[in-house]
Specification:
Elements (H helix, E strand, L loop, with lengths): L3 E2 L2 H23 L4 E7 L3 H16 L3 E7 L5 H13 L5 E4 L9 H7 L11 H8 L8 H12 L8 E5 L6 H10 L3 E5 L6 H5 L4 E4 L17 E4 L3 E3 L2 H8 L4 H9 L2 E3 L4 H7 L2 E2 L6 H22 L5
Parallel strand pairs: 1-11, 2-3, 2-4, 5-6, 5-7, 7-8, 8-11
Antiparallel strand pairs: 9-10
This protein binds NADPH dihydro-nicotinamide-adenine-dinucleotide phosphate.
The site of NADPH dihydro-nicotinamide-adenine-dinucleotide phosphate has 26 residues, from helix 12.
């Protein structure tokens, strides 16, 4: 029995369609389309791809978007000035600062400089606090995407035992709050958790957000669990790809031809054997992150331009 795949692409497409419709309606009412500005500091290749994809997704949904690029050597004060200027710009509805930032820049100071009303990644401490207090707030996009995927796939959350591996501010922590709000019993694990497998094996709903390729294996997974693999790791070693996917897998060819393949934090073949539901990598949680970013941008624009709440 193989796990059923949860189709993140299809769910993301549905959300993007709803956002595009919302943008059309907003344009009819106000004459303006929402505008997102993505701030990219330095030239980390993965960050460049993420920002490019986010900007392209905006235009597909009928929104305006821009990339504000700054060199890795930018003084922190200049970066803060740029972020504050975007906050003061009446044309800008959403601001995201692509992470990670280069060494030497204080991430908290940058996040604090974002206008909370335009904080479409939901990372400003005010919005993180509002989420913790169950007040309406923009929710970080990846955790929001995970909950959407579960809901739209008909997988219940209330009363379930959820175990999240990873406690970052972007994924693990906000997801724990969201699942708790939906009445799951939530445990958060991290690098100091003892006997990780004993904890994760209790999960009806297991979420991996670690950043280590194929780290969670069969022994971590309760048979019949739902496994959500948030991890996106680039694997550029054909031998390692063969040991995970099998020597004849197209993934091994992909490494040889393209230079890399993407693998999650969960061992895909072992999880396939144990889980009832599983998100693929790529094509699982990744597409939902962008869809939820677009939705947050539309909501921020409506709230700011039309006085509508409803995060
Ligand atoms: P971080 O590096 O910020 O956090 C990783 C977390 O995993 C930390 O809490 C760390 O623990 C924990 N951890 C690391 N190693 C272990 C281990 N051996 N056992 C248990 N816990 C461990 O990562 P992010 O949250 O930013 O990202 C996690 C993954 O999700 C990455 O692969 C990233 O690429 C991916 N990602 C995917 C997105 C998407 O759109 N699908 C969006 C964002 C991220 P500790 O706190 O103790 O150090």
């Amino acid at each position: 029995m193989g796990a059923r795949r949860l189709d993140g692409k299809a769910v993301a497409q549905a959300i993007r369609g709803e956002v595009a419709q919302g943008v059309r309606e907003m344009r009819q009412r106000t004459g303006a389309a929402p505008k997102l500005v993505a701030v990219l500091v330095g030239d980390d290749p993965a960050s460049r791809v993420y920002v490019r994809n986010k900007v392209a997704a905006c235009s597909e949904a009928g929104m305006r978007s821009e990339e504000a690029r700054l060199p890795a050597s930018v003084p922190q004060e200049d970066l803060l000035r740029t972020v504050r200027a975007l906050g003061a710009d009446a044309e800008v509805d959403g601001i995201l600062v692509q992470l990670p930032l280069p060494p030497g820049i204080d991430r908290a100071a940058v996040l604090l400089a974002i206008d909370p009303a335009k904080d479409v990644d939901g990372l400003h401490p005010l919005n993180a606090g509002r989420l913790a207090m169950r007040l309406p707030a923009p929710v970080p996009c990846t955790p929001a995407g995970v909950v959407e995927l579960l809901d739209r796939s008909g997988i219940p959350i209330a009363g379930k035992r959820a175990v999240i591996v990873g406690r970052s501010e972007i994924v693990g922590r906000p997801l724990a709050l969201l699942l708790l709000q939906r009445d799951a019993t939530v445990t958060v694990c991290h690098s100091k958790t003892q006997d990780l497998a004993a904890v994760t094996r209790e999960a009806d709903l297991l979420v991996a957000a670690i950043g280590r390729p194929a780290w969670l294996v069969a022994g971590h997974i309760r048979p019949g669990a739902t496994v959500i693999d948030v991890g996106i790791n680039r694997l550029d070693d054909a031998g390692r790809a063969a040991s995970i996917f099998g020597p004849d897998s197209p993934r091994v060819r992909e490494v040889r031809e393209r230079g890399y393949t993407l693998v999650g934090d969960v061992h895909p073949l072992e999880a396939e054997e144990r889980a009832a539901f599983l998100t693929p990598v790529p094509g699982g949680v990744g597409p939902l992150t962008i869809a939820c970013l677009l939705r947050n941008t539309l909501r921020a624009a409506r709230a700011r331009r039309e006085g509508e709440g409803g995060w």
